[in-house]
């Protein structure tokens, strides 16, 4: 197996095109054409993690956080980033980072947080914008069913809990093949009318390549008439953060204790308790100060995230409780999620959870 095959599995699950624009995801170090020896899954890639990969004969590190985030202008080993990359290159170890592609996934980082808290009625807190496109094309009536099926196979036509969704209008199309044409229907130099079906389907933006390939490969016409437009609709199953409900209301202090035990944090910084029961809970793994207002608008009683600044706690406005459980702690189940997914896809190679502790924050 090549490293490229592992990457294909990862990107089938969480396409890098769905990551945030500021992020640096994908294969950061190494060649996809290298033969795989083993996979080490980690939260962060550090020198110690590369050492563990060497020891365990793993030449691919699948990391949640990217070790290279901004551009590197030199490799002289002065920083932990440079030293890590140098050691990986010297030992022919590839590094793949998934980060916000997994943050935005409906079964990703935030879903793991929700599942650990047994939340129900789960929804995306901040649905992703500019991520849905619509294809409109025209095909002879006789081939409409076949073409629709191929477009669905390529990833088009899914809306929430529904699949194979399309809108179809029958009408009359016209065209006149020129002398250079090779028409499958009609004759050169003669105006032709054909009973056609207009097919409209939506698809996630990252699937455009597969959808257009299916269109061109299966359409009977030499020249395919089609249009693709970007939609303003938000993607209800892709985006940052999640919100859901506890099965039963809890006292605020009892809920804080549950959160502390669930995420194994050394301490929780939080805004003032409000003296009311907790039912609706919002979560956002990692740095989530920017989403406090979103949690408020969603009527959350509690918002669990990390990396909050002093003034972020004021934004609670006594409408909800804002809780900072720690960056690593909020994402601690991520590598287990990746291990579980890859274990179902790859069974004949070593797939190892890193033992190296990468949380840089200690509690006194």
TrEMBL record:
<comment type="similarity">
    <text>Belongs to the GTP cyclohydrolase I type 2/NIF3 family.</text>
</comment>
<dbReference type="InterPro" id="IPR017221">
    <property type="entry name" value="DUF34/NIF3_bac"/>
</dbReference>
<dbReference type="InterPro" id="IPR015867">
    <property type="entry name" value="N-reg_PII/ATP_PRibTrfase_C"/>
</dbReference>
<protein>
    <recommendedName>
        <fullName>GTP cyclohydrolase 1 type 2 homolog</fullName>
    </recommendedName>
</protein>
<keyword id="KW-0479">Metal-binding</keyword>
<dbReference type="Pfam" id="PF01784">
    <property type="entry name" value="DUF34_NIF3"/>
</dbReference>
<dbReference type="InterPro" id="IPR002678">
    <property type="entry name" value="DUF34/NIF3"/>
</dbReference>
<dbReference type="InterPro" id="IPR036069">
    <property type="entry name" value="DUF34/NIF3_sf"/>
</dbReference>
């Amino acid at each position: 197996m090549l490293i490229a095959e592992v990457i294909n599995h990862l990107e089938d699950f969480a396409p890098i095109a769905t990551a945030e624009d500021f992020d640096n995801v994908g294969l950061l170090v190494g060649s996809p054409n290298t033969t795989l020896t083993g996979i080490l899954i980690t939260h962060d890639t550090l020198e110690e993690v590369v050492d563990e990969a060497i020891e365990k004969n793993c030449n691919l590190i699948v990391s949640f956080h990217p070790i290279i985030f901004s551009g590197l202008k030199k490799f002289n080993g002065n920083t932990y980033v440079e030293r890590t990359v140098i050691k990986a290159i010297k030992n022919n170890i590839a590094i793949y980072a998934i980060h916000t592609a997994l943050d935005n996934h409906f079964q990703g980082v935030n879903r793991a947080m929700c599942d650990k808290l047994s939340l129900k009625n789960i929804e995306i807190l901040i649905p992703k914008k500019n991520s849905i496109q619509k294809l409109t094309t025209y095909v002879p009536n006789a081939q409409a069913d076949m073409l629709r099926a191929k477009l669905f196979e390529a990833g088009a036509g899914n809306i929430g809990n529904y699949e194979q969704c399309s809108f179809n209008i029958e009408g009359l199309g016209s065209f006149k093949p020129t002398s250079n044409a090779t028409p499958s229907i009609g004759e050169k130099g003669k105006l032709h009318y054909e009973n056609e079906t207009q097919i409209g389907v939506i698809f996630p933006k990252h699937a455009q390549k597969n959808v257009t390939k299916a269109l061109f490969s299966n359409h009977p016409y030499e020249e395919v008439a089609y249009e693709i437009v970007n939609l303003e609709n938000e993607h209800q199953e892709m985006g940052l953060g999640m919100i859901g409900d506890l099965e039963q209301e809890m006292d605020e202090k009892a809920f804080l204790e549950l959160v502390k035990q669930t995420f194994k944090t050394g301490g929780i910084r939080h805004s003032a308790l409000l003296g009311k029961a907790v039912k609706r809970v919002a979560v956002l793994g990692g740095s989530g100060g920017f989403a406090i207002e979103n949690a408020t608008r969603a009527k959350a009683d509690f918002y669990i995230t990390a990396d909050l600044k002093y003034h972020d706690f004021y934004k609670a406005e006594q409408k909800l409780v804002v809780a900072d459980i720690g960056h690593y702690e909020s994402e601690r189940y991520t590598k287990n999620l990746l291990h579980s997914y890859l274990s179902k896809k790859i069974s004949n190679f070593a797939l190892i959870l890193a033992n190296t502790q990468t949380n840089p924050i200690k509690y006194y």
